[in-house]
Amino acid sequence: xxxxxxxxxxEFRTEEQExxxxxxxxxxxxxxxxxxxxxxxxxxxxxxxxxVVASADRAKAGRVAQAIHAKGGDAAGFACDVRxxxxxxxxxxxxxxxxxxxxxxxxxxxxFKPTPAGSSDATHVNQMIDTNLKGTWNTIxxxxxxxxxxxxxxxxxxxxxxxxxxxxxxxxxxxxxAGIILATRALACELGRENINVNCVxxxxxxxxxxxxxxxxxxxxGLRDFMAARTPSTRTFSEPEDIAGAIAFLASDAARAMxxxxxxxxxxxxxxx
Length: 273
Known about the structure:
Layout: H1 4-12, H2 15-18, E1 25-29, H3 34-45, E2 49-54, H4 58-70, E3 74-79, H5 85-99, E4 104-107, H6 122-150, E5 153-158, H7 171-191, E6 196-203, H8 212-216, H9 221-229, H10 240-250, E7 262-265
Parallel strand pairs: 1-2, 1-4, 2-3, 4-5, 5-6, 6-7
């Protein structure tokens, strides 16, 4: 039985695209919305063939892939619970089968929840550790053998300014993102000699569905005012496309000298804290 993702790729393959099967392939987890969706769209515009990965609903990833095709790009939708290492390995195998190669992994899957000390929700704690930290590790662990076989590649992790600066009531989120930053540095030391660049981007406040409550709910007005007063650029929230541009750079040959770097994209908010 044909791999459904392979079928989706073939369905949209044009004769011209058939001539470019050596075009680099990028996987984007968390690709069905927010920064991940913007990154998938940007990478496709830069000429990558893109595996758009949703957490559970392949149809959500498929809608992003359809939008990429409508703009002349090449993409297919996938689904993977990155918290599960076996699922991560299946994803890598499925993408490799569908596209014939893998060159870039972008880890954009993540969860953002408050965990105030003394009244935190254990579910939120576990979700963030499992998705943000373990999920990032699971996909990296699964893709490294493929990148080694290719003779190299790029891994781009999405961390956060919260991994560099503490924010009250978000200790676990901060800890998971700090873990991603240090894991990025350690992996760069481990994999750099194999022509595998591992870097990360640390967004600040970015306008996505993840923080829709902070941006729009009346009860959050005080927090919005606090954030605005401390954002030097005067843009309290970056756009996902801003972060996608940094991700595309780290995925490109222009970043070949970068190993273990963290690009801070926070509108300057951490500069004065």
